[in-house]
User: Which sequence fits this backbone?
């Protein structure tokens, strides 16, 4: 009952926030930096996402500012704490939209809160690049919405594809009861029969329980060869520790999302079950990009040079969502230059033009190169870390998928690429 | 049948931690009549203090004892420094609940300010896995069970066989009458807050050992099951809280094994509502409306 009251209240606040917030985006920017709102959890159990999404913003801002900024403005990343809770996010994001000066671009708006944060930011006329994977946005009509990461159901299908590729025939599917994790499930259920995978258990678990022993007992009775799993670090650590205790110290390989490719996740699980399991039996699946392109070198260098991101550069630069946020920020900044405006309602319509391939385009891989070409009166195609981008009419772009493994708490390697076409087939 | 027996074993193990917490919670409520929602955050504080003490190279069970004592002191300070002055100024029970909620949030965010929002782990302290009577428990879980049992027997002896225990029971039953009989009720209150805090701290560290990895939300997640256990047993009734903790733990684990794990707390809380409909005073509640320790 309480939840039922909260959701309409959150929706109402979102609508009110949008009404009150349309003015700032419609005005020319005031003097001072352009604020890029990183809408993500910076507190609570999902606070790791705040770190994950601030890093690409800082990297992009560094390169944009080194190149002289946009139309006389420097870029600045401003955390907007959505707390990871859709209802709690509403007042925080509403306040940010109303009070942050030159709030002309946003990143993040991840799955747990997108249902309430996307309408607020969109209504305010602020172009944004979201890392949420909600299937509900596969056919969105939100004008300022741009997504360069795959929907969760596609990610789920990629989990199953990797399980089959590894030769597993029986898998247990265990997801935490949050919207981000649960979004993967339809993709797995669709893909498993096509791949000959038997799902021995399909369980939803609460976060941060004191024990998962009964769940583990149920899972063990199906004798799975692998676990397809998605949960926060604490839940994962407790679950795996219980698994090890009940299975004579042995645990099957785990396939999870690249969202977990963080030092926090690594440390939590390593202390519970040992680092060896993370290094040899854990596979993280998410959107793919090549680490040999000029765009990637610029991205990684910016991450390593920036004191705010240096420590986690090694692991962050192997994960899809931060890379897509970095590219998205460059694309929006270049759209500002192309439109000669920092006003969202003006530069938003130039986004497609920045990424599409046109005759006579100069292909650029960095903001600086794009700025130079635009200043010479040329048209550009931005090909960033995630490769050439083709937004569909719903402003979505999925791309390919990668399987990544930890090599340490702050380093990882890509071991396999799963094509977007294969995943699409599995979802049909 | 095997799964049921196993699930009961898991329930007893997690119920022991809940029982430790619930006994402390209900003991303090029985004496002071303050619904202390800061309790969850104090459990979290204990877990983080435990991580700090373990970092100094101390033995985990010594850390558990030290953590309990430190939270006992913090608990007395909370009462003396914040709640008692407000009670003297006539703040009503509802206002006190809001104050304890607020204090809990302040404590929680102080932990974040000092330790950060990342997860913390003690390292694998579970020890060997033991199998008996169809149960599968770790050495750490067995030790926690024994510690909980010893503490509860100790509390029973304190309350029933000592002058202090009689004074605590008298204060719980009728504070004004106890004071007029010469009992130093303020001192008794301090002792109750200290004992409650000690149970709270030990429960926090026991929980941190059990979950293997935790963050600053640790205590707030288990606070509702702890309150449920206390209410199920009869508010103010330490024995009731012991049984309540075990019942909540067992029901949660059995429902996770046979139904959906995501509803394990829902099942425990639904059972609590049904129980209160049938027996409003809880399992061990007093017949009168007054609160009585061991009535």
Assistant:
């Amino acid at each position: 009952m309480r939840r039922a009251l909260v959701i309409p209240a959150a929706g109402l606040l979102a609508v009110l926030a949008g009404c009150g917030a349309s003015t700032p985006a419609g005005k020319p920017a005031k003097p001072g930096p352009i604020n890029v709102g990183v809408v993500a959890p910076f507190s609570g159990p999902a606070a790791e996402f705040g770190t994950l999404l601030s890093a690409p913003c800082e990297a992009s801002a560094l390169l944009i500012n080194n190149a002289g900024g946009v139309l006389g403005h420097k870029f600045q990343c401003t955390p907007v704490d959505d707390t990871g809770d859709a209802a709690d996010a509403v007042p925080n994001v509403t306040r940010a939209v109303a009070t942050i000066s030159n709030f002309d671009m946003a990143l993040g708006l991840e799955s747990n809160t997108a249902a309430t944060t996307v309408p607020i930011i969109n209504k305010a006329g602020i172009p944004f690049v979201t890392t949420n994977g909600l299937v509900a946005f596969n056919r969105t009509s939100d004008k300022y919405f741009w997504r360069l990461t795959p929907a969760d159901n596609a990610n789920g299908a990629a989990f199953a594809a990797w399980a089959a590729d590894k030769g597993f025939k029986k898998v247990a599917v265990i997801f935490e009861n949050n919207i981000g994790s649960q979004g993967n499930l339809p993709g797995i259920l669709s893909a498993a029969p096509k791949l000959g995978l038997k799902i021995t258990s399909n369980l939803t678990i609460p976060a941060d329980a004191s024990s998962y022993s009964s769940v583990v007992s149920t899972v063990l009775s199906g004798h799975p060869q692998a676990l397809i799993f998605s949960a926060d670090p604490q839940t994962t650590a407790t679950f795996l520790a219980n698994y090890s205790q009940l299975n004579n110290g042995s645990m099957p390989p785990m396939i999870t999302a690249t969202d977990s490719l963080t030092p926090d996740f690594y440390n939590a699980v390593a202390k519970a079950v040992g680092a060896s399991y993370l290094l040899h039996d854990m596979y993280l699946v998410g959107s793919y990009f090549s680490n040999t392109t000029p765009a990637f070198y610029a991205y990684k260098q910016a991450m390593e040079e920036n004191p705010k991101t240096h420590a986690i550069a090694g692991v962050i630069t192997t994960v899809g969502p931060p890379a897509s946020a970095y590219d998205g920020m460059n694309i929006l900044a270049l759209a500002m230059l192309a439109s000669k405006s920092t006003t969202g309602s003006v530069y938003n319509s130039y986004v497609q033009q920045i990424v599409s391939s046109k005759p006579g385009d100069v292909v650029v891989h960095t903001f600086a190169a794009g700025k130079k070409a635009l200043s010479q009166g040329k048209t550009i195609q931005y090909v960033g870390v995630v490769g050439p981008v083709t937004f569909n009419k719903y402003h979505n772009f999925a791309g390919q998928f990668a399987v990544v493994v930890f090599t340490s708490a702050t380093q990882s390697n890509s071991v396999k690429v799963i094509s977007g076409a294969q995943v699409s087939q599995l979802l049909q | 049948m095997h799964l049921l027996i196993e699930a009961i074993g898991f329930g007893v193990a997690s119920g022991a931690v809940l029982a430790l917490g619930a006994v402390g919670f209900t003991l303090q409520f029985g004496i002071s009549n303050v619904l202390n929602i800061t309790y969850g955050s104090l459990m979290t504080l204990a877990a983080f203090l435990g991580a700090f003490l373990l970092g100094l190279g101390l033995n985990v069970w010594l850390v558990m004892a030290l953590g309990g004592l430190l939270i006992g002191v913090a608990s007395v300070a909370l009462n003396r420094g914040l709640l008692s002055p407000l009670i003297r100024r006539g703040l009503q029970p509802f206002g006190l609940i809001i104050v304890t909620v607020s204090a809990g949030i302040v404590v929680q965010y102080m932990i974040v300010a000092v330790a950060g929002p990342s997860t913390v782990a003690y390292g694998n302290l579970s020890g060997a896995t033991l199998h008996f009577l169809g149960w599968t428990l770790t050495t750490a879980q067995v030790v926690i069970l024994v510690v909980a049992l010893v503490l509860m027997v100790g509390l029973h002896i304190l309350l029933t066989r000592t002058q202090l225990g009689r004074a605590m029971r008298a204060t719980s039953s009728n504070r004004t009458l106890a004071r007029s009989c010469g009992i130093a009720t303020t001192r008794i209150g301090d002792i109750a807050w200290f004992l409650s805090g000690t149970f709270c701290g030990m429960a926090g560290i026991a929980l941190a050992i059990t979950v293997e990895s935790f963050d600053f939300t640790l205590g707030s997640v288990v606070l509702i099951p702890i309150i449920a256990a206390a209410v199920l047993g009869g508010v103010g009734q330490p024995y009731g809280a012991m049984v309540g903790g075990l019942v909540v733990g067992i029901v949660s684990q059995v429902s996770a094994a046979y139904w959906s794990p995501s509803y394990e707390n829902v099942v425990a809380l639904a059972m609590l509502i049904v129980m209160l409909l049938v027996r409003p005073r809880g399992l061990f509640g007093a017949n009168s409306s007054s609160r009585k320790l061991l009535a």
User: Anything to note?
Assistant: Residues 1-26 of chain A have pLDDT under 50 and may be disordered. The longest strand of chain A covers residues 198-205.
